[in-house]
């Protein structure tokens, strides 16, 4: 019998398992697969690739959310994607890249650079530092350095050099495209590709719920999310499924 899976991530936030969509994706993947796991606050400096999440299982340390998912599939612990056909796999790969490569930096911009977003998000980061047992007197210093490094990386990547209006439009364009894809498949079933979940469902929920659920102001208004009804329906279906499994993401993080 294999050891329990241990996930090293960041910290939880309103409506999501973790502030990182990659950690959320991995946790949701395990929950939907009925795989028991333990969540621990990680330290990126000790992570195998210098970033979170990573997992430990049966004496092995596995980096990266997607590599971890492939490892879990190979070990036979989850089988979310085994039934997908080649066209579905291609669609999932292309759209996952759009979210994890493009929309991710939009999310970072909203939380770390947008003044009204940072004014709220910094409180979640202080919560993380407390969970990491960083001394109170050092937390502001650590957070200033973390924000400076994040903004420098965001600028080097290119997203940080754009105006707020450009970032807002990029978010609209990505979510509109995703909503069109989802609407075209709604007759197939409540999950993205049919009657049961796939790994891509966890990616969509991680990013869409990660933008919509937390109380972090964005460059678009909350009312604009009504323009993506297929994505809202998908998110609500995932949330309802989690409720049936005993997981209430709407509850305060410390009461789940």
UniProtKB/TrEMBL annotation:
Keyword Cell membrane: no
UniProt keyword annotations, A-Z: Transferase
Single GO MF annotation: transferase activity
Protein origin, superkingdom: Bacteria
Thioredoxin-like fold domain span: 21-113
A Pfam family recorded for this sequence: GST_N_4
GO CC terms in record: cytoplasm
PANTHER family in the cross-refs: FAILED AXON CONNECTIONS-RELATED, METAXIN RELATED
Protein name per its UniProtKB record: Putative glutathione S-transferase
Taxonomic lineage of the native organism: Bacteria, Pseudomonadati, Myxococcota, Polyangia, Nannocystales
